[in-house]
Amino acid sequence: MNEAREKYLAISGGVGGAKLCLGLASILSADRITFVVNTGDDFEHLGLHISPDLDTLTYTLAGLSNREVGWGRQGETWNFIAALKQFGGESWFNLGDSDLAIHVMRTEMLKSGATLTQTTAALTNSVGIKHTILPMSDDPVRTIVHSEGGDLAFQHYFVRDRCEPNVSGFSFQGSERATVSKELRACLDDPALSGVVICPSNPYVSIDPLFAVAEFGDWLQSTSLPVIAISPIVGGEAIKGPTAKMMCELSVPTSPAAVAQHYVDKIDGFVIDERDREWRDDIKALGLETIVAQTVMVTLADRIDLAQCAIDFIRRLNSGN
Ligand code: FO1
Q1: 237 backbone dihedrals φ, ψ, rounded to 5°
Q2: Radius of gyration of the chain (CA)
Q3: How far, in Å, is the centroid of ligand 1 from the Cα of 116?
Q4: What's the rounded mean pLDDT across residues 198-202?
Q5: Which domains does the chain have, with CATH numbers?
Q6: Residues 267, 227 contacting (CB under 8 angstroms)
Q7: pLDDT for 258-294, tens place per residue?
Q8: What three-state secondary structure class fits 67?
Q9: DSSP-derived pairing of the beta strands 150-153 and 142-147
Q10: Does 158 contact ligand 1 (Cβ within 6 A)?
Q11: Choosing a second label site near 271 at 20 to 30 A (CA), which of 46, 99, 168, 238?
Q12: Is there an atom of ligand 1 within 6 Å of 99 CB?
């Protein structure tokens, strides 16, 4: 196919994934890449529908993100949460004064009957994003963390309990009933779709929720298009977040090979970091094409370089070389 017509899908969680999405959005126009985002982190809090990963990507692509922490908005103030605390309200989840607007708008739109996909389109358009960001499903799916102290709703584990409890597994409440939206279905059925990139997000709590939506997981497993993933583990550690801690607690080695193994029935190719070269043969032995790249993204140029590398890898797989 003419390269200019090839389309791609990128699957992302929050902070780590959003970095690569920004690189992909910088090199591919809005008609050539669509982002599908985890909504297992979503929850209802203080009467608001919060979609952290959708918002992280929205703020990132709009150039509004708080770059230090990766989530929330830049230049944020915290008067609301301070006042809420004073009244004895639940203040463990930090909702910034300007961030509140997106949650209020989403909640209102959902209440008036819009789907999460329609709501996300309206919110992303408002901040000037041309690319399409799709929730993995319009149906509610909620990640449950099985921990030593019992089951925890994802944000209780992640933010309130600071990822401290030892985990033994995860489940995705509602996934058995969840389907993909007609908008996502149209992307999957588009004859110009040329490949899928799984961003370097947490495999257990950012990517598995998407696989748990059977219609999407089954499509990924059966598609003849190249599906590639980028390792979120570099040098035995996660770039950000609790991925490595979770792997230890699940008795899985904290190696890129273990992540590749986790994805093996869904992917054709795997990207590892330069400092993990020694894992290349182990990953190839899983039957996966493997390339080495600089996967740690500090600057915008790093994001663009890795995005280009991912697209070139898919093209290579498509050409059979
Ligand atoms: N992450 C935190 O670690 N602490 C917070 O207080 C927090 C608040 C928050 C508010 C809005 C939002 O969209 C995201 C927020 N996040 C916060 C990030 C969120 O928990 C994400 O689920 C994780 O980053 C995992 O992707």
Answers
A1: -130, 160
A2: 19
A3: 19
A4: 97
A5: 3-319 (3.40.50.10680)
A6: yes
A7: 999 999 999 999 999 999 999 999 999 999 999 999 9
A8: coil
A9: antiparallel
A10: yes
A11: 168
A12: yes
The CB density around residue 77, as the number of other CB atoms within 10 Å, is 12
Q: Where are the beta strands (DSSP E) in the chain?
A: 7-12, 33-37, 43-45, 48-50, 132-135, 142-147, 150-153, 167-173, 193-198, 227-230, 233-234, 237-238, 269-273, 289-293
Residues 6 or more apart from 304 whose CB is under 8 A from it? Answer: 23, 26, 27
First to last CA, the chain: 15
CA-closest candidate to residue 19, choices 240, 234, 308, 303: 303
Residue 156: exposed, middle, or buried by beta-carbon count in 10 A (0-12, 13-18, 19+)? middle
Distance of CA 34 to the CA centre of its chain: 13
pLDDT in tens, 207-249: 999 999 999 999 999 999 999 999 999 999 888 889 999 999 9
Cα dihedral value 217, 220, 221, 226, nearest 10: -160
Cα dihedral across residues 141, 147, 153, 159: positive or negative: negative
Per the rule left: phi > 0, alpha: psi between -120 and 50, beta: everything else, 2 is beta
| AA letter at 119 | T
Q: Is the CB of 42 under 6 A from ligand 1?
A: no
In the numeric block, which tokens belong to residue 34? Answer: 């669509």
Q: Which of 38, 45, 43, 33 is nearest to 6 (CA)?
A: 33
Tell me which residue has tokens 């939506």: 213
Lookup: tokens for 49: 């529908």
Residue nearest to atom 21 of ligand 1 (CA): 52
